[in-house]
Amino acid sequence: MSVPTGKSIAPPSRESNIREDLRVSAATTVGTAIEWYDYFLYAAAAGLVFKELHFAPLGQAAATLVAFLSVGLSFIFRPLGAVLAGHFGDKWGRRKILMITLIMMGSATTLIGLLPTYNSIGIAAPILLIFLRIVQGFSAGGEWGGAVLMAVEHAPDHRRGVMGAAPQVGVPAGLLMSSGVLAIMSYIAPGEAFMQWGWRVPFLLSFVLIIVGIFIRHGVDESPVFEEIAARKSNVNMPVVKLFKRHGVLVILLALVFAGNGAAGYMTTGGFIQNYATDPTGPIGLQRSDVLNAVTLSAASWLVFTLLAGIVSDYIGRRATYIIGFIIQILGILALFPLVNTASIGYLTLGLVLLSIGLGLTYGQQSALYAELFPASVRFSGVSVTYAIGAILGGAFAPTIATALLQNTGTTSSITVYLVAMSALGLLAILLLRDRKGIPLGPEHEKLQRLSPVRGIGTTDYAKVKMD
């Protein structure tokens, strides 16, 4: 049952200043793009660079697995970052946390670009690399929730989907940027030059991006919902404890929704396809620059359909958009490896673009969905922690699992089964949730927001809840 909207349960939404909306959208998109540029840059470099420069003494197969494990390791620390960011974000505000996470992520990425290799300093090289990756994971855990709430809580009711898509668009934009810069450096410093110094340039570029991000985010006002919470002095002392006590089932279901998207998405964002398609000892053996170009094109497609999903969800609802998206995503997964295994760069590009359509349609509406399902008092904690758990279940070790499946079965069919199963779990989870498009987000409507959005749990009679 959808939540009734309109005058029957809520006053008309506030008139949004177009200039402020554009400023918020730009700040969340650009800031998130910079954060995920840093995050995805590491994932791509893990299979292309770090397995040789930092983990080579382990041997080819083990080095590849460990490199991808280092990608997934950061996800373990994302919940810690999410818990702390959610706790302080619900108490101090969204804007401060976003500035802290941006600086943390950019600093770690810049230092990776300066890090010596195993041949220079021995075992200290992979240890320092893994430490900096953990810092990236800690930062990523707090970034997304703050960006989402800045976008959605500034938005008028009827535009939450499209404004909430702004930080979502920042994720494929980050992939587009990281893949694009790596591709450019592959041309500027081909072959051995790329391994010697070319890979470092994209990491060092992060220092410039930090300055840009700080400048853009500095001019954005705090979320109006948080300002109202602060004015009412209705901050919760232990928001994470309250979150799991009252909304544990919701957290699990929403984590599965994101996991259904993340497992397939991390075939490229986690670097698996890049490594699989360019491995000279493997069945594909394509050129690194060609594959990076294909990933860049697919990221552009992912960006477009992410924005489209946000727009569409404002008309047909978040839940319906997800259902359509997961069906299309499963079809894209079934087509992916048959196209990649042709060893044709054209078919590989087609496979990645087809997959990105479903990825976008199961991602663009996520900000609005999450924000509308959690009460105002625990919303930062709710969206941040849920996102981090979903990232672990779906994306953290997807490249490692795919690599292990390939090494043990000798076929990509096993990977396809794994990805379809994860997408099916996401589809099942969204079917168990109600759509609450347009529900009031302010703290004065907390009684309405606390009603269970999980089908079969709690009251479903939203219309009888009296507004304060």
TrEMBL record:
Transmembrane region(s): 58-77, 97-115, 121-141, 162-185, 197-216, 248-273, 293-313, 320-339, 345-364, 385-406, 412-433
Keywords attached to this entry: Cell membrane, Membrane, Transmembrane, Transmembrane helix, Transport
Membrane topology: Multi-pass membrane protein
Highest taxon, organism lineage: Bacteria
Cytoplasm recorded as keyword: no
Keyword field contains Cell membrane: yes
Residues covered by the Major facilitator superfamily (MFS) profile domain: 24-438
CDD domains named in the record: MFS_ShiA_like
Location, primary (coarse class): membrane
Subcellular locations according to the entry: Cell membrane
GO MF entry, a single one: transmembrane transporter activity
Record-given protein name: MFS transporter
Classification of source organism: Bacteria, Bacillati, Actinomycetota, Actinomycetes, Mycobacteriales
